[in-house]
Amino acid sequence: MNKNTSGRIPLDGNIERGAAVTIDINGKPVTAYLGESVATALLSEEIVAMRTTTLGESRGVFCGMGVCFDCLVVVDGKPNTRACMTWVKEGMDIRTQDGLKATN
């Protein structure tokens, strides 16, 4: 039995993915796929705490549809970007967010 070392569903011929792209998550280059949200890319890398509040409490994907604003990250230097509503693209720089600023 193959052990899935990624957070993604393994391809079995019934699932299609977009083209592979390289993005940077907290200084680490990772592979993501066009058509995925930033939240999907983060979760596939086992990053569930995408930000902390100004009081230091962890937050991540809650609603998954852009209503709750719990999955805020810094994308290409822009803080407070909703990870669940932002699609990955080649070369994107994604950072987890600490309060109102990037952590890494």
Please characterize this protein's 3D structure.
- Helix content is 7%, strand content 31%.
- It has 104 residues and is mainly β.
- It has a single domain, classed as 2Fe-2S iron-sulphur cluster binding domain, sarcosine oxidase, alpha subunit, N-terminal domain (Ubiquitin-like (UB roll)), CATH 3.10.20.440.
- The strands form 2 sheets. Strands 2-1-7-5-6 form a 5-stranded mixed sheet, covered by helices on one side. The chain has a 4-stranded mixed sheet with strand order 4-3-8-9, with no helix packed on it.
- Strand 8 and strand 9 form a beta hairpin.
- The longest helix has 7 residues.
- The chain starts with 19 loop residues before the first strand and ends with a strand.
- What's the CATH architecture? Roll
Percent range of helical residues = under 10%
What structural category arises from helix and sheet content? mainly beta
What is the quaternary state of this protein?
single chain
Mean pLDDT, rounded to whole units? 89
Question: CATH homologous superfamily name?
Answer: 2Fe-2S iron-sulphur cluster binding domain, sarcosine oxidase, alpha subunit, N-terminal domain
Question: What gyration radius follows from the Cα positions, in whole Å?
Answer: 14 Å
Low-pLDDT segments, ≥5 res: none
DSSP summary, beta strand count: 9
The succession of helices and strands, N to C, reads EEHEEEEEEE
Principal-axis shape equals globular
Major β-sheet strand ordering: 2-1-7-5-6
CATH topology label: Ubiquitin-like (UB roll)
**How many domain regions?**
1
β-sheet strand percentage: 25-35%
**Distance N terminus to C terminus?**
37 Å
Number of helices: 1
CATH class: Alpha Beta
